[in-house]
Amino acid sequence: MPVIQKDDRVVLQHPKGASAEILYYGATVISWKSGSTTNPEPTERLFVSGKAALDGSKPVRGGIPVVFPAFGAPTHPDHAKLPQHGFARNNVWSYTTTVMDNEAGVSVKLSLGPNDEIKAQFDHPFHLEYVVTLAEHQLTTDLHVKHTGLSTTPPFEFQALFHNYIRAPANDVRITPLTGIKYYDKTEATEEARATPKVENRESVDVKKYTDFVYENAPGRYDVVWPSGAIEIKTKNLKDVVVWNPQQETGAKIVDMETGGWEKYVCVEPGYVRGFVKIEPGQTWWGQQVLTVKV
């Protein structure tokens, strides 16, 4: 059975050997093993901290957390009661259905709607569907956000992001093409500096020092490359991308980060996080990323 439902997660298995695991808590992908065209041996492509909580007690430190409806500390007036990065990553989602199960790939759908805890933080009528699709060398994640209110209900606004922890040697990794793209540097000491845009002038972006950059209106396709590997990220409807690695300077202060964990990953996070998506009653917004192992 290529789709195995367990108590706390669903496991996808591709006939060519690739696999993925998705926790119901947060709909967080916590494992993606895939070979490449040059090496068929399935290899773990995501980083999850050895200190990460996988029991639903707090958001998972690693994998692919789903950020919705706010990125970082909430800035929208409607989001004032939300925790950092919103509620999608720290609520239990429901397994809905197996979308596809054949030689091409295995795909499942999870869903989340308002519960009492969410309503206290975000009192808008919504329904989320999250589709994860596993192919031989590829993982695709699609987030669908529906405004389920009546036609007289006000619109609501949100942000969304896929917080990918890509397993790679942080000091050797390079991300392209971001040359000439405007970005905001969240490592700056003052609010004014953090709100002042810069322009990326490097041919390739590295994370050898503490990096937390939000690139606005980015290309939508990114190559994450290191000496022994490469992953391509293609996106739809996700206009921004965040590049993050805390390095020891900040990583050592993260309680659920394993010692030296910051050396083992780079976060390349496609999202809509500069400004907000506005959605009217009856409308559905959709954002997608496709991760492909190239080497």
Written overview of the protein:
This protein is mostly beta strands and 295 residues long. It is 5% helix and 43% strand. Strands 6, 11, 12, 14, 15, 16, 19 and 20 form an eight-stranded antiparallel β-sheet that branches. The mean pLDDT is 97.
Distance between the termini: 28 Å
Structural class: mainly beta
Number of strands: 21
Query: Please, how many helices?
Result: 3
Helix-strand pattern = EEEEEEEEHEEEEEEHEEEEEHEE
Uncertain runs: none
Morphology: globular
**Biggest β-sheet: count, sense, barrel?**
8 strands, antiparallel
Radius of gyration: 18 Å
Give the rounded overall mean pLDDT: 97
Helix content: under 10%
Which band does the percent of strand residues land in?
A: 35-45%
List the helices and strands and how they pair.
Blueprint: E1 3-5, E2 9-13, E3 19-23, E4 29-34, E5 43-44, E6 66-67, E7 94-101, E8 106-112, H1 116-121, E9 126-134, E10 138-147, E11 156-162, E12 165-167, E13 174-176, E14 182-185, H2 191-194, E15 198-199, E16 211-215, E17 221-226, E18 229-236, E19 240-245, H3 247-251, E20 265-279, E21 284-293
Antiparallel strand pairs: 1-2, 2-3, 3-4, 4-5, 6-11, 7-8, 8-9, 9-10, 10-21, 11-20, 12-20, 13-17, 14-15, 14-16, 16-19, 17-18, 18-21, 19-20
